[in-house]
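re: ur question from yesterday

yeah so i grabbed the chain u mentioned. its 122 aa long if i counted rite. heres the sequnce exactly as i have it in my notes:
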Amino acid sequence: MNKRTIGKEYEEKACRYLEERGVAILERNFRCRQGEIDIIGIHGEYLVFAEVKYRATAYSGNAAEAVTAAKQRRICRTADYYRYRHRIGDERAVRYDVIAIQGAGEKIAINWYRNAFFHVWK
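ran it thru and got these structure tokens back, copy pasting raw so excuse formatting
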């Protein structure tokens, strides 16, 4: 399998995981000039922008640590555009989450980091 196929498989697992925990998925793989957001959903009063990261082994590093400062800036710019495009005002609470998936096959661990980072301004 190529990286795109593997990524899609684990994003699907992340979506199921979030839905089982009460997140209503609004959109997947939202793309625009600013970047891409893997999952956008509603969880309670929050509009959630979630990044999914997968690592098969610890040798590749921790999945959650793969969301670098540069990636956070891109996610925030993309989220701002999404909110603008969908006319979602500042009164809506926003949260940036990371879904870290570690392992392979039947031996995977999924960790959901809520409020993984704060909004990053330019």
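noticed a couple things. The chain has one domain: 3-113. also DSSP finds two helices and five strands in the chain.
anyway ttyl
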